[in-house]
Amino acid sequence: MLRRDIAGVRREIEAYPDDESLWKPVPGVPNMGGTLALHLAGNLQHFFGAILGKDGFVRDRDAEFARRNVSRAEILRGLDDAAASVEKTLKGMDDLDLQLPYPELIAKRKVNTGVMLTHLAVHLGYHLGQLDYHRRAATKDERGIDAVSVRELPEVK
Q1: For the segment 58-107, what is each residue's pLDDT rounded down to a tens digit?
Q2: Over the chain, what is the mean pLDDT?
C-alpha cells in the first residue's frame, strides 16, 4: 500500500500543469499540493528511514509547512527519496519487528511498530486524497488520475 500510494502522490504532482499551480491557495483547503507532498516526503523519510532504518535523515517538519514555490522536480526527488527509504527499511524488517514497540514515543506514548506502520499508511492515504482535491480545485481539472489504483494491489499467486 505504501508503494502504491507514494506512486499515487507522484502521479498527482506530475498531473499539475506547472510548478505554480502546486502552490495556488484554494479556499477551504488548508494545505497546498506542494505543502502536502513536502510533508509526506519528510514524514516517511523520518519515521521509516531515520527512526527504523537509522539512515541519518534529519527532518525539518516546520520547513515542510513553511516552504513555498518549490519546483515539481525537487518535490519529485523528495518523493523518490521517501520511496527508497520505505523500501530499504521494510526490506530489513521481518514479522517479529512489527510486534515490537516502535523505537520512538508517539504523542508521548509507546505504540506497536505494526500499528505505527499502519498509521503511516493511513496518514499517507489521507493526505493523498487532500492532494487530489487540491489539484482538481487549483487547476480546474476535475479528471481523476487513479491515484489509489486497485490495479496496483499485489496479486495473490
Answers
A1: 999 999 999 999 999 999 999 999 999 999 999 999 999 999 999 999 99
A2: 96
CATH code of the domain containing 108: 1.20.120.450
pTM of the predicted structure, to 2 decimals: 0.94
Provide the number of structural domains found in the chain. 1
SS3 sequence, the chain? CHHHHHHHHHHHHHHCCCCHHHHCCCCCCCCCHHHHHHHHHHHHHHHHHHHHCCCCCCCCHHHHHHCCCCCHHHHHHHHHHHHHHHHHHHHCCCHHHHHCECCCCECCECCEHHHHHHHHHHHHHHHHHHHHHHHHHHHCCCCCCCCCCHHHCCCCC
150 in a structural domain: no
